[in-house]
Amino acid sequence: MKKIGIFYGSTTGTTLEVAQEIAKCLDVKPEDVHDVASVSPSSVAGYDMVILGASTWGAGDLQEDMATFIDGLQALDLENKEVAIFGCGDESMSDTFCNSVGEIYHRLHDTHAMFIAPFNNDGYNYQHSWEQLECKHPENIIAAGNVDSQTCLDKISQSKISVNVMPWFKDGAHDRIFNSMLNGAVVLSDTSNYLKECFVDKSDLFFFELRQISDIGDIVKAALSDLYRLQDMADRAYNICIEKHTWKKRCDVLIDRIENGIF
Q1: Average of per-residue pLDDT across 27-49
Q2: Among 91, 128, 172, 240, which has the highest number of CB atoms less than 10 A from its own CB?
Q3: 176/168 Cα distance (integer angstroms)
Q4: CB atoms within 10 A of CB 237
């Protein structure tokens, strides 16, 4: 009998619950159900079949623990290893619904894994990439595809306006916001408690609500109509970031807190 291991990445607990239900159906023992935040990618070596599961966040982003785990799996040779994938998603986000499933599949495509248990997608509409997006001027969309961190930073450095949708950590912020500002771009982002503490809407950046994500086009159009204001906003955000939000500033704060026992 093939030994099955279930590996999941869960932020709110939903994917964990699904993983446990799958384990019951397949008679997988609890010790073979793993939170990827607590195990190394090499743990899959002990299994003939691996089931990977994750939720989808932000603009189709892979759950952060699973993203790190997949980074490790990409370095392994999974030849003859059977791999099945499941995902959790929000049907209201129709353009990125369960995008984590496709993300895992594409990132492990070159590991020689044997993907099993295909799902019949009849009745579902899914835009695989920006290149397939129906719009008036598709020639204006330049898609870089899946790139490494350095290439992502290089692309950010060429941007004048940076649109950001964060993974679901609403008491923090994604570093691409600060990277964009430090490279002179104006940022459009969904909100977080931390960002609201640091920046003023329509003065240092533009905020939008995820439930009104369709408003982004109008915000960009209005911003481009006043380039002097746009440059002033970029300069103000840059100065704030130089003063408070570089990696050196982050390290200085951490060192100070550690040395003074502030946690």
Answers
A1: 94
A2: 240
A3: 14
A4: 26
- pLDDT over 90 (residue 146): no
pLDDT tens figures, 235-251: 999 999 999 999 999 89
Query: Strand 33-35 relative to strand 114-115: parallel, antiparallel, unpaired?
Result: unpaired
Whether the CB-CB separation of 7 and 15 falls below 8 Å is answered with no
**Contact indicator for 87, 101 with CB cutoff of 8 Å:** yes
Contacts of 39 (CB under 8 A, 6+ apart): 7
The Cα 221–Cα 28 span in angstroms is: 53
Rounded distance between C-alpha atoms, residue 150 and residue 89, angstroms: 29
- H-helix or E-strand spanning residue 67: helix 64-73
Q: Which residues pair with 82 in a beta bridge?
A: 49, 114
Which residues on adjacent β-strands are paired with residue 57? Answer: 61
